[in-house]
Specification:
Blueprint: H1 9-12, E1 25-40, E2 43-44, E3 48-61, E4 64-75, E5 86-99, E6 104-118, E7 127-138, E8 141-151, E9 156-166
Antiparallel strand pairs: 1-2, 1-3, 1-9, 3-4, 4-5, 5-6, 6-7, 7-8, 8-9
Amino acid sequence: MGLWILGFIPLSGAAQGFNWEMSPKYVGEIHTGYKTTTKVSGFNTYSGMVELGTLQGVSLNRYLDLALGVDAFMMTHYYPSCDLRFGMNVYFDMRPAYPLTDRFKVFLDLGLGGFFGVHSDPEIGDGFFCQFGPGFRYRKFNMSLGLQNYGSGKGSTAFYAKLGLYF
């Protein structure tokens, strides 16, 4: 059961001590990603989406980043009776992190905000947006993945993966 924890033992020796001191500075990220739905309007189905987004905010210290995010995405599946379908997420993003070394840190990505459809499925509609998942940063490169829920009513659920450049 707990054998997977043994995989983190080599990293624990390189982990740095915890020192919570405030040193706010501007941070940003440009990322691209892909997400696949597991549910659309409450039905089990598949739809892929390519996304491009940015985060702009503040790093309070080595352990916490707060930012505003905007992601625009396009659904990759074409349906003969529909136009191209686009959407946009606008959200507040929080990333509590733990630096294992000066160059490598792990974090949790939590985003809460709104979803706005442009030529999207009318049953999804505009509504609440939430994303949650783990990630890591190596130097200036970020990788995060997790689950998203967006839309109104029954909404939609998607698995996402994002690659980003942190500055």
